Amino acid sequence: MRLKHVPGAEEAVADSPFVIGDETTHKGQWRAVFPEADPQAELYAELGCGKGQFLVQLAEAHPERLYLGVEMYSSVLLRAVEKQEEKNLPNLRFLRMDATYLTDVFAPGELSGIYCNFSDPWPKDRHAKRRLTSRQFLARYEQVLAPGAEVVFKTDNQGLFDFSLEEAEAAGWAVTHVTRDLHADAEAVKDNVMTEYEQKFAAEGVPICRLIMHPEH
Ligand SMILES: C[S@@+](CC[C@H](N)C(=O)[O-])C[C@H]1O[C@@H](n2cnc3c(N)ncnc32)[C@H](O)[C@@H]1O
């Protein structure tokens, strides 16, 4: 995706109380980052959360759950932080980091679920391992997900969707839900929360693919 330089974004993100710095120090204790939370609350992460629309809506809809938005770029994350500044949701925080390092940041079994929404496709074969649904990423997710916890992946990109299904099979994951036109499926779309990218593609009539999968622990 094209990145706009936003002057001051890095400092604003680093200084925000909604962005958790020194993320490796919370490994195994992420629930304590949310002072009002039930220590047993479910904890979900969206990887590549972009401007945060999805997580803000989800956190509002499920105040009993905890949400972490992981985003690599301050210029994008700043928009998510600004949304959260308006809402001040107690169950939503952000991490400015590369999801590649997920296992340095989360303890085994610490996450109740992972969302990957409209992840970058990395079209060149030699970059396949950077795709958030590559077998390399699935191996990382397997380490940090609780038993039975799922990865939910949405994309407009059919090639990336095919690749993700192949990677799930190669990794021995169970795929429990597949649709290539989420918005045409009344049952599947019922609880769907739209992301910024999804809203744009759906408005253009582009079908949205979704799969749900989990490691066979
Ligand atoms: C195409 S955008 C989608 C944003 C949002 N999820 C949506 O659906 O509207 C993908 C986002 O993922 C972020 N991203 C890509 N690879 C990442 C990684 N390895 N770790 C963290 N963020 C990543 C990008 O910076 C970008 O903001």
Number of strands: 7
CATH topology: Rossmann fold
CA radius of gyration is: 16 Å
What structural class should be given to the helix and strand makeup?
Answer: alpha/beta
Write the CATH architecture name: 3-Layer(aba) Sandwich
Mean pLDDT: 96
What is the CATH superfamily classification? Vaccinia Virus protein VP39
State the distance separating the first and last CA atoms. 34 Å
Order of helices and strands: HEHEHEHEHEHEHE
Oligomeric state of the chains in view:
single chain
Number of discrete helical segments? 7
Largest sheet descriptor: 7 strands, mixed
Low-confidence segments: none
Principal-axis shape equals globular
CATH structural class: Alpha Beta
Please tell me about this protein's structure.
- The protein has helices at 9-15, 53-61, 74-87, 102-105, 135-144, 158-170, 196-203; strands at residues 43-47, 66-71, 92-96, 111-117, 145-155, 173-179, 209-215.
- Helix 3 (74-87) links the parallel strand 2 and strand 3.
- Helix 1 (9-15) crosses helix 3 (74-87).
- 30% of the residues lie in helices and 22% in strands.
- A seven-stranded mixed sheet has the order 3-2-1-4-5-7-6, with helices on both faces.
- 40% of the residues are buried.
- The longest helix is centred in the middle third of the chain and has 14 residues, at 74-87.
- The chain is globular and about 40 Å long.
- The protein has one domain: 3-Layer(aba) Sandwich (Rossmann fold), CATH 3.40.50.
- It is of the alpha/beta class and 217 residues long.
- The protein contains seven helices and seven strands, in the order αβαβαβαβαβαβαβ.
- It binds S-adenosylmethionine (SAM).
- S-adenosylmethionine binds next to strand 2 and helix 7.
